[in-house]
Design a protein that fits this description.
Length: 295
């Protein structure tokens, strides 16, 4: 056991053969490991359970390629960047907020990530493809943030639902998110610019899609609701408008909402309510004018 009183950010290049690195006191603790800290197929535990109040832990194990690293969080907040290890990582969260970052192609069923009792975020670094099975051992997280740099494709079902995640935030990339029938908890997706496809056709739970500004919704986007009560929530920046062609890819949503008290204009397309009744809710426009064209 390497028992440390406290540590600022540093790289432990010449540390080998230890099974545990431990924070002794409730003080800020930061470690960046190197691949040599853990021998191939061997294990290392980074123990932050002494961090009980405001002291935070910042851990970067991204250099590890073939050892097993476990991070034990305390009641304080923990920020961790996970590894590309062939044997997976383990995170056991505490009562604090866990902010965990993992490369898109490194999140697999070999990883066991438990966010614990706080409000916890899993961030995907980079871009690529994630399958439902990749979330098999993910639990007690609330938010998923997608990566940047290129297209992302996520197919989500029962295993994803078991992770506890109910909020997804996309970035300025082309993202495809498919919710399967195994997703039975209400989901909220916030997206920015890019050619995005969100398909909830098979999902029975409610879906809310937040459009960051009206310019982010274009004819390149395809948004399909499921069998629940689905809402498209649009933030108009003021004097902004959405044309019929720009909203033409939106189907099976029961409600479209103007999110703020800002001037806006919406021209509906025929496809928007081809199979259902649609409600346009502008009650947030308490003073700013809103124009609706449903012709």
């Amino acid at each position: 056991v390497l028992d440390l009183d406290w540590t600022t950010a540093g790289t432990y290049t010449n540390v080998t053969g230890f099974e545990t690195i431990k924070s002794r006191n409730d003080e800020a603790f930061a470690i960046t490991t190197v691949d040599g800290n853990v021998a191939s197929t061997k294990s290392l535990t980074i123990d932050l359970t002494a961090l009980l109040t405001t002291a935070s832990g910042t851990i970067d194990i991204s250099a590890e390629t073939n050892g097993a690293i476990t991070i034990l969080s305390g009641a304080a907040n923990t920020t961790a960047t996970l590894s590309s290890s062939s044997v997976g990582d383990t995170v056991t969260g505490g009562a604090g907020v866990e902010a965990i970052t993992v490369l898109d192609d490194q999140l697999t069923s070999l990883d066991t990530l438990n966010g614990g009792a706080g409000t916890d975020t899993l961030t995907i670094s980079g871009n690529g493809v994630l399958a439902d099975a990749d979330f098999t051992n993910v639990s007690n997280f609330e938010t998923l943030i997608l990566g940047t740099g290129g297209a992302n494709t996520f197919v989500l079902g029962t295993e994803y639902a078991g992770s506890g995640i109910t909020t997804i935030t996309t970035k300025t990339a082309d993202d495809t998110i498919t919710f399967g029938s195994g997703v039975t908890t209400a989901q909220t997706v916030t997206f920015e610019s890019g050619a995005d496809t969100i398909d909830a056709t098979a999902m029975t739970a409610a879906l809310t899609v937040n459009v960051t500004t009206e310019t982010d919704l274009t004819s390149a986007d395809t948004l399909t609701g499921g069998t629940g009560t689905d809402i498209l929530n649009i933030t108009f920046a003021g004097s902004g408008s959405i044309s019929a062609s720009e909203i033409g890819g939106v189907t099976k949503f029961e409600k479209i909402t103007s999110a703020t008290n800002a001037i806006g204009k919406l021209v509906l397309a025929d496809a928007n309510n081809a199979t259902s009744t649609i409600t346009v809710d502008v009650t947030n426009n308490t003073s700013a004018a809103f124009t609706l064209d449903a012709s």
